[in-house]
Design the sequence.
C-alpha cells in the first residue's frame, strides 16, 4: 500500500479552532485527530465524538467492589470462624452488618476508582515508557493542531484550511 | 407574573378541608377515659390483629391474656403469668386458677390443646400466687394508663409531625436560598423567586407551630414528658432525677423563649431578604444586592446555631433521657434535602405551565445533583448516629434504637430505602437528572421518606407501639400540604418570577451544564 497523506492545520486560539472544526465537519472532511494543550470545552461535541462510557464502567466496578467486600466479610467473620468478639452478634451477616459497612463502602469506592482509572489508561493507551505521539511539540504549549485525512484535491484542501484561520498548514506523509 | 390556577387553588382547599376533617375525627375518636382504653385494647386483641400488625408475637400473647380478663381485677394475675402459662398449657402442668381462664381461652384460640386436667391441683399454688396478684393488678393498671396516654397523644403527635415537617421543609429551602446568595452562585438567580415563594410558608407555619408548642407547655397534651407535673419535684411520685437534672435547660419558660427567638429570627431574615430582593429590581445600583449578601451571611451563622438547638428542643427533648451529639446535623440534612426537593418540584411544575422561560434542563440537573448529594449526606449521618450507638451498645443510649427497630421496624428501615437507595439508584445517572418524570418520582419518594424520618424521630417518644398511619396522620399531612400549596402559590403571584437586576442574572439565564 502506498502511504497516506494528512493535513496538519495549526491554530493559536481555541475559538478559532472550534470554528475550524465546525467548518471542516460541514465540508465533510474526515478529522483524524485534534491536539490541544488543554481541554477545550465543547470540542468533543463539535467533533461529533461519542460520549464516554467510563462512568458506566465505574458503576459496575463499584458493584463488584461491594460484592467482594460482602463476600469477604461474610466468609471471614460469619462463615469461617464466627467468634464472639466483644459481644458482637456473628450469627448471620445481617446481624453484624453495621460493623461491616465501613469496609463495604471503602471497597466500593476503591474498586470503582482504581479500576476506572486503569480502564482509562488502557482505553487511551497510556503507560510508562510509552512513546509520545505528539506530531508537533508546540501543541503541548500554545498551539492547537487538527489532523485531517487528504482525499481528492490536495491543493483545494490546503487553501480550505488556510481560510479557516490556520496559522500554518502542512501536508504530511504518514506511514 | 404568575397567576394561581383555579384548579390548583381548588385542590389546595379540598386538601385543607379533608385534612381538617381527618384531624377533627382523630381528636374525637381518641379515648377519653381509662375504661375506653380497656375496651379498645380488648377489642383490638379479640379481632386477632393489631392495627398494622406491628407488635411482636410475644407481647401479643401477654396482651391477649389481659384482654380476656381485662375487667376482672382478681383474675388479672394471668397477666403476670402468661409466659409460663403459655408453656404449661402444652404440657398440662398445674397452674393457679386465676390464670386458668385465660389459658383456656388462649389455648383454644391458638393451640387447640385441651386443658381439662389442670383443675385438681389449683389450691396448691393459690397462696403463692396471692402476692403476685396484687402486683399484677397494679401492673395491668399501669399498662392501661400508659396505653391511655399514648392513645391520647396520637392525634397531637400526628399534627406535630406534619406541622414541624412542613415548617422545616420551608427552612430547608430558606437555608439553600441563603447559601446560594452567599456563594454567589451563577446558576440559581433565576430560581430565587421560586425559593422566596416556598419560604412564604414560613410565617404561617411558624405561627401554627408556635401555638402547638404553647399548647404542649400548657398541658393540653402530653407530647413532652419533661413538661409533666411533678417530674422535677422530689416529693412527687412522678419525680424523675434525670429530667430534674436537666431542668436548668429543659424548663418551659426558657424553652418557649428560645423557640420564639429562633422563629422570629428566621422570619426576619426571610422578610428582609425578599424585601431587598424586590428593591434591587427597582434600584440602579447593587446596594440591595450587597445588603442581602451580608444579611444572608449573618443569617447562616444564626441559622446553624439555632438549628442545632431547635433540633434538641423540638425533637430530641421528646426523649428527654436520650441524647446524641450529631442529632442537629442529622435533622438538618433531613429537612435540607426535603427543601431542595421542594424547590425542584415547584420549579418543574411552574416550568411545565410555561412560567419560567429562563429555566432549562441544566438548572434541573443542578437541583437533582443537590437532591442526590444531600440524600447521601443524610444517609451518612443517619448511619453514623445509628452505627456508633449500635456498636458501643451503651444501655442508656441504645434504647432509642431498640424501640425503633422493634416497634417501628418497617418505617425505620424503610426510611433508608426511601431516602437513600431509591434516590441513589435513580438520580445517579446524568441523563435521568434532567428528565422531569424521573426527578418528580424521586422527589415524591424523598419527601415521603423524610416525612417518615420525622415520624420515626417523634412517634416512638410520644405514642410508642400504639402507632399506625391512620386518619389522624394522613389528615394532618393533607391539611398542611393544602395550606402549603395555598400559601406558596399565592406568594408566587405577588412578584415577577425572574428577578430583574441581580448581578448574576445574565449568567444564570445562559447557564448550561
Sequence:
Amino acid at each position: 500500500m502506498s502511504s497516506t497523506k494528512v493535513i496538519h492545520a495549526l491554530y493559536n486560539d481555541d475559538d478559532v479552532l472550534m470554528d475550524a472544526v465546525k467548518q471542516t465537519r460541514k465540508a465533510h472532511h474526515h478529522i483524524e485527530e485534534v491536539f490541544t494543550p488543554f481541554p477545550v470545552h465543547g470540542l468533543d461535541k463539535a467533533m461529533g465524538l461519542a460520549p464516554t462510557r467510563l462512568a458506566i464502567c465505574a458503576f459496575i466496578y463499584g458493584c463488584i467492589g461491594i460484592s467482594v467486600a460482602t463476600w469477604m466479610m461474610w466468609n471471614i467473620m460469619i462463615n469461617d470462624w464466627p467468634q464472639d468478639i466483644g459481644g458482637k452478634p456473628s450469627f448471620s451477616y445481617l446481624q453484624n452488618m453495621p460493623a461491616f459497612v465501613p469496609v463495604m463502602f471503602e471497597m466500593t469506592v476503591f474498586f470503582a476508582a482504581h479500576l476506572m482509572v486503569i480502564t482509562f489508561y488502557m482505553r487511551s493507551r497510556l503507560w510508562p515508557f510509552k512513546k509520545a505521539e505528539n506530531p508537533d511539540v508546540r501543541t503541548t504549549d500554545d498551539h492547537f493542531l487538527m489532523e485531517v485525512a487528504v482525499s481528492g484535491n490536495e491543493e483545494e484542501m490546503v487553501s480550505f484550511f488556510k481560510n479557516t484561520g490556520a496559522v500554518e498548514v502542512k501536508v504530511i506523509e504518514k506511514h | 407574573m404568575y397567576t394561581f390556577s383555579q384548579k390548583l387553588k381548588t385542590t389546595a382547599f379540598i386538601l385543607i378541608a379533608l385534612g381538617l376533617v381527618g384531624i377533627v375525627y382523630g381528636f374525637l375518636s381518641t379515648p377519653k377515659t381509662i375504661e375506653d382504653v380497656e375496651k379498645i385494647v380488648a377489642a383490638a386483641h379479640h379481632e386477632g390483629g393489631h392495627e398494622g400488625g406491628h407488635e411482636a408475637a410475644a407481647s401479643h400473647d401477654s396482651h391477649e391474656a389481659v384482654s380476656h380478663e381485662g375487667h376482672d381485677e382478681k383474675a388479672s394475675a394471668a397477666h403476670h403469668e402468661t409466659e409460663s402459662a403459655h408453656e404449661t398449657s402444652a404440657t398440662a402442668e398445674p397452674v393457679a386458677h386465676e390464670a386458668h381462664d385465660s389459658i383456656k381461652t388462649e389455648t383454644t384460640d391458638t393451640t387447640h390443646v385441651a386443658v381439662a386436667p389442670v383443675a385438681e391441683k389449683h389450691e396448691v399454688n393459690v397462696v403463692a400466687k396471692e402476692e403476685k396478684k396484687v402486683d399484677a393488678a397494679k401492673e395491668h393498671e399501669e399498662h392501661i394508663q400508659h396505653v391511655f396516654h399514648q392513645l391520647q397523644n396520637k392525634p397531637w403527635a400526628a399534627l406535630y409531625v406534619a406541622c414541624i415537617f412542613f415548617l422545616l421543609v420551608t427552612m430547608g429551602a430558606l437555608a439553600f436560598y441563603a447559601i446560594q446568595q452567599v456563594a454567589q452562585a451563577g446558576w440559581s438567580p433565576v430560581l430565587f423567586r421560586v425559593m422566596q415563594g416556598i419560604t412564604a410558608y414560613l410565617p404561617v407555619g411558624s405561627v401554627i407551630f408556635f401555638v402547638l408548642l404553647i399548647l404542649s407547655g400548657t398541658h393540653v397534651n402530653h407530647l413532652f414528658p419533661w413538661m409533666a407535673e411533678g417530674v422535677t419535684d422530689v416529693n412527687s411520685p412522678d419525680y424523675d432525677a434525670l429530667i430534674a437534672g436537666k431542668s436548668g435547660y429543659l424548663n418551659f419558660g426558657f424553652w418557649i423563649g428560645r423557640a420564639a427567638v429562633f422563629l422570629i429570627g428566621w422570619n426576619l431574615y426571610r422578610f428582609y431578604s425578599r424585601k431587598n430582593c424586590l428593591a434591587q429590581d427597582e434600584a440602579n445600583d447593587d446596594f440591595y444586592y450587597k445588603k442581602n449578601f451580608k444579611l444572608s451571611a449573618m443569617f447562616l451563622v444564626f441559622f446553624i446555631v439555632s438549628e442545632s438547638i431547635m433540633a434538641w428542643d423540638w425533637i430530641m427533648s421528646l426523649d428527654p433521657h436520650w441524647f446524641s451529639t450529631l442529632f442537629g446535623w442529622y435533622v438538618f440534612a433531613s429537612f435540607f434535602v426535603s427543601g431542595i426537593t421542594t424547590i425542584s418540584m415547584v420549579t418543574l411544575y411552574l416550568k411545565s405551565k410555561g412560567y419560567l422561560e429562563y429555566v432549562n434542563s441544566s438548572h434541573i440537573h443542578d437541583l437533582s445533583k443537590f437532591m442526590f448529594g444531600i440524600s447521601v449526606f443524610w444517609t451518612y449521618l443517619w448511619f453514623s448516629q445509628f452505627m456508633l450507638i449500635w456498636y458501643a451498645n451503651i444501655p442508656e443510649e441504645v434504647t432509642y434504637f431498640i424501640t425503633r427497630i422493634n416497634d417501628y421496624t418497617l418505617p425505620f428501615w424503610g426510611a433508608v430505602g426511601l431516602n437513600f437507595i431509591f434516590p441513589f439508584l435513580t438520580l445517579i445517572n446524568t441523563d435521568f437528572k434532567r428528565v422531569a418524570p424521573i426527578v418528580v418520582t424521586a422527589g415524591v419518594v424523598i419527601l415521603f421518606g423524610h416525612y417518615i424520618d420525622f415520624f420515626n424521630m417523634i412517634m416512638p417518644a410520644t405514642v410508642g407501639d400504639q402507632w399506625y398511619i391512620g386518619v389522624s396522620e394522613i389528615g394532618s399531612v393533607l391539611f398542611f400540604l393544602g395550606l402549603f400549596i395555598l400559601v406558596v402559590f399565592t406568594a408566587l403571584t405577588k412578584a415577577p418570577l425572574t428577578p430583574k437586576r441581580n448581578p448574576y442574572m445574565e449568567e444564570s439565564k445562559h447557564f448550561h451544564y
Summary: Chain B has one domain: 6-42+154-498.
